[in-house]
Design goal:
Blueprint (H helix, E strand, L loop, with lengths): L1 H19 L3 E2 L5 E2 L5 E2 L4 E4 L16 E9 L12 E2 L3 E4 L4 E8 L4 E6 L12 E6 L2 E8 L5 E6 L11 E6 L25 H16 L16 H21 L1 H7 L5 H37 L4
Parallel strand pairs: 1-11, 5-8, 7-13
Antiparallel strand pairs: 2-3, 3-4, 4-10, 5-6, 8-11, 9-10, 9-12, 12-13
Length: 303
């Protein structure tokens, strides 16, 4: 009984201590490595810290602001197709604002709050960077430059920004909106789930192969059909017309497909697709003519 009470007490004490530590505070653990670079051995990092030096064009601190930004998988649930996100996708402050960012990571993986485009004479590599490994909180301060400008804020861990962890910070009125900010601006590349032309070609080839491999009961030798040069020329002309018509219908898709290709690459790709299309049509027509001939022999008298 005494042992059972002791074990129960230990479980309660352990559970209480674990529940009390939700996030690790990194602010008091950071070591200053100079040039605004703060770092600790537990996976916390601040780069570009600047709480005192005014950027050129700022006569004084316009105002002092603090924000808390949460990052995690759960904040992406309201954005279809996204996996990670900040809890806020857009920020706005006056020029020359002294801004302290408290960054809270709610996932058990590394996340960042990184701001680009800052003046490099004051911020090394032009960025302010908060990084944290696992559930914890870290804070950093910077002084925003003067003027109206929109800055990119994102997580630079591989594929995190592409999967939704990005935002924009406007100083003053900003200088426009950035693309693909979840819930704020449209995606630069729109998701397209339509069947592509190569997929249609593969499906047509598979169907033609299946038809050709079907067993056929021959009752008489089929008379070969000769194609005269005139008929062959007419067939090629018809195929060309069909190809041109398909080209006009597929123009929007091709414009997207050819983006970034050189003229020679576009020509080579076009002729290759045209050749494949003609081969498929010729094969289908040959199979059709063969079947018509066989059916004709079946119904002829004396067969």
């Amino acid at each position: 009984m005494v042992k059972l009470l002791s074990v129960s007490l230990l479980v309660i004490l352990f559970s209480t201590s674990v529940a009390a530590v939700d996030y690790q505070e990194h602010d008091g653990m950071l070591m200053n490595h100079g040039d605004g670079h703060l770092m600790d051995m537990a996976g916390g990092m601040v780069m570009g810290q600047n709480a005192d030096t005014l950027p050129g064009g700022c006569d004084s601190i316009a105002e002092t602001k603090e924000i808390t930004v949460h990052a995690g998988h759960k904040y992406a649930e309201k954005f279809p197709g996204r996996m990670f996100a900040f809890d806020t996708q857009e920020f706005n402050f006056k020029p020359c604002t002294k801004l302290t960012v408290h960054f809270v990571n709610e996932d058990k993986i590394r996340h960042q709050w990184m701001m680009h485009g800052l003046p490099k004479y004051l911020y090394p590599k032009g960025m302010f960077h908060l990084e944290i490994s696992g559930p914890a909180k870290i804070s950093g301060t910077l002084i925003l430059p003067p003027g109206d400008k929109t800055y990119l804020v994102h997580c630079d861990i591989a594929q995190h920004m592409e999967k939704g962890m990005k935002a924009q910070l406007k100083v003053g009125k900003g200088d426009g909106d950035l693309p693909s900010i979840p819930g704020v601006t449209a995606n630069a590349v729109v998701d397209d789930y339509k069947v592509s032309l190569p997929e249609l070609i593969v499906a047509a080839e598979a169907e033609a192969t299946a038809i050709a491999n079907q067993p056929v009961v021959a009752t008489a030798e089929a008379t070969p059909i000769k194609v005269t040069p005139k008929q062959e020329s007419s067939f090629i002309s018809g195929t060309t017309v069909i190809g041109l018509a398909l080209g006009l219908l597929l123009a929007p898709y091709l414009a997207k497909k050819f983006k970034g290709m050189t003229p020679s690459e576009i020509i080579a790709y076009t002729f290759e697709q045209l050749r494949m299309g003609i081969d498929i049509i010729v094969k289908l027509l040959s199979d059709l003519i063969k079947r018509v001939s066989e059916n004709k022999n079946k119904i002829l008298p004396g067969n």
